[in-house]
Amino acid sequence: MPPRNASDRGAPCGGGKTPTSGDSRGGAGRGSRPGPAPATAFLSLEAKSDIVAVHLRRPGFGKVGRQITVTVNSFAAKIPQATIVHYDVSGNSRLVFYFIAGVNPISEFPVVEPDRLPARFNLQLFTSLQDSEPNIFTPKIVYDGRKNSYAPRELALGGNSRKFTIGDPSAPATMSGRPPKVYHITLTKVATINNELLHRFVAGKQEYDENISTAIMAHNVAIRMEPNLKHPFDKRSFYISDDRQNIGRGLELWRGIFQSVRPAIGRIIINVDLKAGVFFKAGSLLALCMDFMDFNGSPTTVLSADRLTRQRRNELRKFLTGIRVQVPTTGNKLRTIRGISDANANTLSFPLSTGAQTTVSQYFASLSMPLQHTGIICVLVGASAMIPLEVCHVPEGQFARKQLSEDQLRELQTFSTIKPMERLAKIKAGLAKLQHGQSDYVRQFGMEIDADPLTNVPARILDPPEITYKLKGKNEKLTPRAGTWHLQDKQFYQPAKIFQWAILIYESKKFVPAPALTQLIKAFLATCQAVGINVVKQEPIYKYENPLGDIDAHIKGIGKESLTQLGDFPSLIVVILPRIGTDIRNAVKYIGNTQIGVATQCLQGSKCLRATSSYWTNVMQKYVVNTRLGGINSIATSQTFREFLLDKANPTIVMGADVIHPSPGVKDRPSFAAVVGAVDSNAAYYTDRMSVQIGRKETILDMKKMCKSILSDCMEYRKKMEKNPTPLKRLLFYRDGVSEGQFTDTLDTELKWIREACQELSLNPKITLVIVGKRHHNQIFSPKKDFIDKSGNLVAGTVIDTVIVHPTDFDFILQSHGGQLGTSRPGHYSVLCNEIGFGPDAMQTITNDLCYTYARCTRSVSIPSPVYYADMVCSTAKLRYDPTGRLNFSDTGSQASGSDNVYLEAFQSDFKDLHGNQKRRMYFVVSSEH
């Protein structure tokens, strides 16, 4: 394939695009390692080559850090120099479902053609097609369950396309009055791809194009075909029923095996990992409903139409909708639940074909299927058929895409928490279950897959930055060990000031007597003094209030009392929460952030009244009282920070962005997007902006507006700190949550909006844009004690930029945090634009250093602080809505009905802006009550 235009080679932004600013620099070619560089040469030249990377070419490989070797959860695969033929599987863009409307056992109704069939059913249908046409499909070809089929040979279709007719493979014997269902499948040849292109691509000799993508997808479908036919599957994982755990309310967890064919440097690898899936419990639908309702008594007590409250009915309807059940009156054909009845089986009536009326319970008695529970509701299947719960059977292996409760989420976390070497052993066992060597589908594609994971993979351990605090007014530096350090005998780098404070107590005087309150105040003040926080007026105003009363009146009332007695509103309101959980915390945060502009700190009375000094130190640091009052806990200082962030000739801003989406199955919620930016040169103090946009839209639609506002904050802050500050010259932007398939869109849209925000402020910084990936499946292991911490995980700062990374793109894998429970997941970083000109060492080091600047803890975190903060801003979205307002954030709460625009407008109009006092504070660095 001829190279692209030479003017596009080595461009500092991916996709061959020429940026509006920055340098187009030359440098070492792909695959060569740069020679020794001066210790300060962190800004590197971009690589030139005749081959253009998918997004941005790797400028070389890192050298900084201690060299080690590790084991990874990827397996080498050999793919022959063969030809693959790609076929489109269609009938109006998918398998088309044709049948004649029949007579329902209960009532006659028109059958609506489904807009999409389940992938598992499509696979069954395609298997039936291959069995019925052995002359064409021997050996059998592979199919992804949707639109694509691949064969290692050309099929004898009698042309490029052929239409096949096949009967329903899962249909029972033909019933009276119902003709058999017929499906039409059309195979159309799309393309022929030679695997040589794939080999050239991983060798760095071939540009990425659609042929490469198709070849990779074909081999992915080949390795997944056999397990997908035998087990429940979801995208790139299949799940095994012999490793499961009950989590209550009708759900259970199954262990899954993830597998993905991926191109790497000089080779093809298969990434294998563990996953956890949530499934409905199999068996009687009635038993499932009783389990969901968490009730062991008579079904009539909780499932009778007159016993179900509106809320419980709504919860049950949402839980059941979409479950497929077998119904004996239709030959155990799978039917999908679409709702629940408003009446019980003994009162719900419908007309027979004779014109007579009958109830559901009478109808089933006439079929010699008398019901045991006639006084409970039915489920709606099809268009209008109402079926009793007790006659429906829930087959095994149905995914439950429902929002989990807090208890269920904890169970999921425990189920997924596996120690590193145990996880590696389970991954090896999972590969054995895949039985790639015994799969006809894998063999016919000529694939050979190693049974053992890749070992001796080169990695490096980066040094941590120094952490700077204050001690007696002077800088005090310490070096983290294993990603952690201690605040003991240190003061914050920039302590906040509390002019006056107040305490609201939502407990009785019996539980919080005067002596206990006095001791609490003394402990709070002593800790403030120890960490350097100056409390000007040390005696707080305090009030006892009823937790069932008006929280808004309580907060505003104590504020006015402070104004009257002390001459100003409080800088901080400490709220002591009652033992029984309430919604007080959310109301307090909402009022403090949007109504009165005062920082609030909620504490559990059961904890703070008997607290030790370490607890109160945590209140100041971990629960970030200091940071939310405008202080800075600590800063990271390293060679990279000094050269990059503290270069007065090239002022720099570090920014981060993220989007969070509604829970699975929730359709009437928006997505929340956030952008944060460090206003100071130490990348320690951030301001934020948040926006509300249509649900599950990944592109940040208000990117330009939010970036412009944060850049303005930064410029204003630096004007206060410096007399004549130099305009911003560099912008390092970390973007979270973007999948590989969306990289190009991020470059074409969001990067463009970031530039426009700069231009409208007369700024022209060089921009480096880095995508932070958390939902990948790369894991790093080592049995050597020198390389691991107490948890068995690789030590903080382990980085890989060879062997398992992209063949040409500028990416790396970094495990920046120390392990705690289970197996630590590293971050995957893809540099899409690099106008600043970071070399691999500089990019990896600055990213690692930024993981040590997170204000809430004295340990490094798994992703850079700006990304962490952006995620936290999104998670506080609920606190920007009036808790007494019309919008309900619970999974069962209904919103404004109508189109997407209607519910979006409701969320956007009710979204409250921050109070002016909070807009430039890190109010978002919050935690649960303590």
Automatic annotation (TrEMBL):
Residues 572-882 form the Piwi domain. It holds the Pfam family Piwi. Residues 1-39 are annotated as: Disordered. Residues 288-396 form the PAZ domain. GO terms for molecular function: RNA binding. Gene3D superfamilies: 3.40.50.2300, paz domain, Ribonuclease H-like superfamily/Ribonuclease H. PANTHER family: EUKARYOTIC TRANSLATION INITIATION FACTOR 2C (PTHR22891). This is Argonaute-like protein.
